[in-house]
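Researcher: Structure prediction, please.
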Amino acid sequence: MKTLLLILLAAPCMAWAQAHSADDVKKDVQRHRAMAVAHEAAAKCLESGKKSEACMKDLQASCKGLAIGRYCGMKHEH
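Model: Predicted structure follows.
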């Protein structure tokens, strides 16, 4: 009984730890580069003197479909 319980508890962990294929890694790299471009554009927007809200709106539009959340995969403290 304990062995069965251990197997049932470990199964999701083993499924989660599967290695990514080379194609998955390549796609992940492309997403990271696209997010980096969007963040660089947001930094330049802020440097130009535009309001933070406008720059954030542009960042969110650039990152749509790339990252999870409002901050394009990156949030920092203020």
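Model: The chain has one domain: 23-78.
Researcher: Thanks, that helps.
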